[in-house]
Design goal:
It is a single chain. With 251 residues, this protein is an alpha/beta fold. It has 3 domains: 1-58, Multidrug-efflux Transporter Regulator, Chain: A, Domain 2 (Orthogonal Bundle), CATH 1.10.1660.10; 59-136, Methyltransferase, Methionine Synthase (B12-binding Domains), Chain A, domain 1; 140-250, 3-Layer(aba) Sandwich (Rossmann fold). It has 11 helices and 6 strands. It has helices spanning 3-10, 14-23, 39-57, 63-75, 79-91, 96-113, 119-136, 160-171, 185-195, 209-221, 235-250, and strands at 29-31, 34-36, 146-153, 174-183, 199-202, 226-228. It has a 4-stranded parallel beta sheet with strand order 4-3-5-6, sandwiched between helices. A two-stranded antiparallel ribbon has the order 1-2. Helix 1 (3-10) packs across helix 2. The longest helix has 19 residues, at 39-57. The N and C termini lie far apart (64 Å).
Length: 251
């Protein structure tokens, strides 16, 4: 069985089946320019997907199916289907933080690793995710826990991580000034000095040492707790780090 036929049996886009082959989820042998698969392996995965769908009917979001749908929408640069995926998981009971951690973040990593996509397609997908995350970042309800400033320092041009940090903090009842990415040192320091936040969150993805140095300089220059995020860190872990930094600063 070739990969195109397997994708039809599984009811997914060819690119989704290809990703499963690359990650080892769907065993396949490379034959020439294509792949050959055993029908029993395809049926095993199809049954796993049917079981996941049955669990989803019990009342919780089907994250695997949502990830696949979002992946296909983003790969095709289709913002409306992408937003529909997010709306569906929210309607199934997901929180904004879960949408970021369990949907947007993993799908963007898959897109980054997909050698069938051009850099422009990946950039377009990231822009769609930024729009989606922006709609999730609603101001907090009830009494706020405090004021946070979220930004990425100069040299860090990825906008989505800081936006997702804003989503998580607002969901945790923080008021947030979101300054975006690639913020010059002097501008960031000036804003913090004037705003007097309870905590500063810096989002870092790139491994350029100069960006880490900029974060270290800011941490040393301000008299408020600074939490530095990093690639692979979940938003739950970020919130725990913020909580710990604020407690330590108050102690």
């Amino acid at each position: 069985m070739n990969l195109e036929s397997a994708a039809k049996v599984l009811g997914v886009h060819y690119q989704t089946a290809y990703r499963w082959v690359r990650t080892g989820q769907l065993p396949a042998a490379k034959v020439g320019s294509g792949y050959e698969l055993l029908p029993e392996d395809v049926e095993r995965l199809a049954e796993e997907r049917r079981a996941q769908a049955r669990r989803a009917e019990a009342g919780s979001p089907d994250w695997v199916k949502a990830q696949e749908r979002l992946y296909e929408a983003l790969a095709a640069a289709q913002p409306e289907p992408a937003q529909l995926v997010v709306d569906d998981v929210l309607a199934a009971g997901a929180t904004p933080l879960q949408v970021c951690d369990r949907l947007l973040a993993p799908v963007l990593r898959w897109l980054d690793d997909d050698d069938l996509l051009l850099p422009g397609q990946v950039a377009a997908a990231a822009e769609i995710c930024e729009e989606v995350a922006g709609r999730l970042a609603a101001p907090p309800r009830g009494r706020p826990r405090g004021l946070a400033v979220v930004a990425s320092p100069a040299g860090e041009g990825h906008r989505l991580p800081s936006l997702m940090a804003t989503v998580a903090l607002r969901a945790d009842r923080w008021r947030v000034h979101h300054l975006g990415a690639d913020v010059p040192d002097e501008d960031l320091l000036s804003f913090i000095t004037e705003a007097l936040p309870d905590v500063v969150v810096l989002s870092l993805i790139v491994t350029d040492g100069r960006v880490a140095e900029a974060a270290a300089r800011l941490t040393a220059a301000v008299d408020v707790p600074v939490v530095v995020g990093a690639a692979g860190r979940s938003l739950e872990e970020l919130l725990e780090a913020v909580e710990g930094a604020v407690r330590a600063g108050a102690g």
